[in-house]
Amino acid sequence: MAHLNLLPWRAELKKERETRFVFITLIALGITGAIFFGVYTYIEGLIYWQKERNAYLQTEIKKADKKIAEIKELDAQREQLFARMDVIQKLQGNRHQVVHMFDEIVNTSPGDLFYESLIQNGDKLTLSGVAKSNALVSEVMNNIEASPWFKRPNLKIIRKRDSRFYKTGESNRKVSEFEFTVKQDSPKKATAEDEEEI
Predict the structure, then answer these.
(1) pLDDT, tens digit, for every residue of 84-108?
(2) What is the side-by-side strand order in the sheet with 124-131?
(3) pLDDT, tens digit, for every residue of 147-156?
(4) CB 125, CB 118: distance < 8 Å
(5) What are the DSSP calls for 141-183, one per residue?
(6) Between the CA of residue 40 and those of 27, 30, 54, 61, what are the distances in Å?
(7) Residues of 106-134 as b/e, b for ≥16 C-beta within 10 angstroms?
(8) Which residue has the higher pLDDT, 39 or 155?
(9) Which among 1-10, 14-23, 71-80, 119-128 has the top mean pLDDT?
(10) Which helix (H) or strand (E) element contains residue 45?
């Protein structure tokens, strides 16, 4: 028994343990690598999915922005149409007033009074011309004030000037140059306002 050599057995056991350690280490490294690869792949999948979702949302946002722009354009067109319709309705409603306005201007004007210009701005009229005398200007103002188609006449200018219409001998006769403003009215509108006040 004294002659037995146990060295090869111990060396083989040590070698087997080292081989097992290396094998277990390699397996652990492989499992760790697989776990890291799985986690990396999962995270990359989430990132890819999020990018796809973001791209889809961006596409939908662009579509929504386009639709919003179309809706705004349609709203602007609708407002323009309403404005046009409003103008047309006002013109239709006031169409007869133009005839009455010119008729009343003629009816309220005494002889020897001439209008040189008529400017309309909304329901405000500016009339200017010449008359033989200041009394005629006063008369036309009174006639206009009494008319149901006009209200609030306001004399702006009255002055004497040489006439190109009336000439007596060598010298020109002086005439009254005038300008006044007046508001257009309608008898129906005036009646309705009076009823509201009562």
Answers:
(1) 988 888 777 666 777 777 888 888 8
(2) 113-121, 124-131, 171-184, 150-168
(3) 888 888 888 8
(4) yes
(5) HHHHHH-TTEEEEEEEEEEEEEEEEEEETTEEEEEEEEEEEEE
(6) 19, 15, 21, 31
(7) eebbeeebeeeeeeeeeeebebbbbbbee
(8) 39
(9) 71-80
(10) helix 7-108
Q: Which residues contact 126 (CB under 8 A, 6 or more apart)?
A: 117, 118, 119, 120, 156, 179, 180, 181
- The CATH code for residues 90-197 is 3.30.1360.100
- Can you give the pTM of this predicted structure? 0.45
- What pLDDT, in 10s, does the model give residues 104-120? 888 888 878 888 888 88
Q: Where are the domains of the chain?
A: 90-197
